[in-house]
Design brief:
By secondary structure, the protein is of the alpha/beta class. The chain has 18 helices and 15 strands. The chain has a 6-stranded mixed sheet with strand order 1-6-5-2-3-4, sandwiched between helices. A 5-stranded mixed sheet has the order 9-15-14-11-12. The protein has a two-stranded antiparallel sheet with strand order 7-8. It starts with a helix and ends with a strand.
Length: 407
């Protein structure tokens, strides 16, 4: 099975501009393709995961990935999929975030010896003269057509700023620049980027009389149609300091039965033939599938050693086993009043809930236990001494645990 057919079999391809040409290019290792990453945070998250995996798959098939860091477009902010304008970041923050992104991207694709190209669009976008840009590309964009793009339509009622309206032109200019300067012939991205990507292929055709191609990746949605990669505490990050390897493992271990096989097919590098055999799995077999998914993705992001640790910790938790292997949260003595801390504050400080009101509901509904004993008193006092040594094991629901200790 060639790479294009494998992407189809995995359900990764959403839309393409010219299937015959794209198939020919990537199956024969002739694609020099780019994916853009706007540095909106200091870590990549699960929302970037599919793009990173796609780059890895295509590089393994002999194609050349071009990593585009959005040091320029990040100054504007992509309105796609957003109901409000993104927070504007300082140039210093954007530069720092780009550096963080590049370190993480290097875990997925080989950036050495010309096997990939890394560029930052600040190097050309920030030097553009506004009037010259209007004259060069303005005549090739129809405002009427731009307003029909999904990324703009969903913002019209709430208000679309002129700043964001320019984003499509900036992204299109990126493709045009990369085609001219680096011979980049394809752009890949999430399906919500389709309109922006078409703008690039059209600009290249109008300005240079050449053909370039675009392909979008299926968005990672759960069975309810919502984007995956969010928890009550926010995004699932790829940085272990922001989302621990254990919590990353647990996120995938806890996906819905209806989503697990789709995630294995789209995100792991297990052979398609092996995954096909799982299609008939049900009941307890789906729990095995979740363990496979969690292990494979944790290994991909954090390495085999961390994946093994997370797997062992999960087994220890469900068996009520070794406290030393459990994920740990640390409190300080300042969190205690007169030598005690109430249960609701403890589960909030440990990260088991995102707000105290959420903690109150969980406790009063019987969903919280201390060292294996259920407790429904939100004010239940836990003494400081109890958190010393191996600490206190707090549990919320069936799958969320913390060993809580005092620094």
């Amino acid at each position: 099975m060639k790479i294009y057919e494998e992407l189809q079999a995995r359900g990764l391809i959403a839309q393409v501009t010219d299937e015959k040409e794209i198939r020919e290019l990537i199956n024969n290792g002739k694609a020099k393709f780019y994916i853009g990453f706007d540095p909106t945070a200091d870590s990549l998250h699960v929302g970037h995961f599919m793009a990173l995996c796609l780059m890895k798959r295509l590089q393994m098939a002999g194609n050349t990935p071009v990593v585009l860091l959005g040091g320029g477009t990040g100054m504007i902010g992509d309105p796609s999929g957003k109901t409000d304008m993104r927070k504007m970041l300082t140039p210093e923050t954007i530069l720092h975030n780009c550096d963080c992104f590049l370190k993480q991207i290097g875990r997925f694709i080989d950036l050495t010896d010309g096997k990939a190209i890394v560029v930052n669009n600040k190097d050309w976008l920030l030097n553009l003269n506004y009037v010259d840009l209007l004259r060069e590309v303005g005549p090739h964009f129809s405002v009427n057509r731009m307003l029909t793009a999904e990324c703009y339509k969903q913002r019209m009622e709430r208000g679309l700023t002129f700043l964001e309206f320019n984003y499509m032109i900036m992204q299109s200019y990126d493709f045009y620049h990369l085609y001219k300067e680096h011979g980049v012939n394809m752009q890949f991205g999430g399906d919500d980027q389709w309109s922006n990507m078409l703008g690039g292929t059209e600009l290249i055709r109008r300005k240079l009389g050449k053909d370039a191609y675009a392909m979008t990746i299926t968005l990672l949605l759960n069975s309810e149609g919502k984007k995956m990669g969010k928890t009550v505490n926010g995004a699932v990050w790829l940085d272990p300091e922001k989302t621990s390897p254990f919590d990353f493992y647990q996120y995938w271990r806890n996906v819905a039965d209806s989503d697990v096989l789709k995630c294995i097919r789209m995100l792991t590098f297990l052979p398609v033939e092996e995954i096909d055999k799982m299609n008939k799995w049900e009941g307890a077999q789906l729990n095995t599938a979740k363990e496979i998914l969690a292990y494979e993705l944790t290994k991909l992001v954090h390495g085999e050693e961390e994946a093994e640790k997370a797997k062992a910790s999960a087994k220890a938790l469900f068996a009520g086993g070794n406290a030393a292997e459990m994920p740990t949260a640390e409190l300080s003595e300042e969190d205690f009043t007169d030598g005690v801390i109430d249960l609701n504050t403890a589960i909030f400080k440990s990260g088991l809930v995102s707000t105290k009101s959420e903690g109150r509901r969980a406790i009063e509904q019987g969903g919280v236990s201390i060292d294996g004993e259920k407790n429904t008193d939100i004010r239940y006092p836990i003494p400081l001494e109890k958190f010393k040594g191996e600490g206190v094991v707090l549990k919320r629901g069936k799958k969320n645990f913390r060993r809580v200790v005092v620094k």
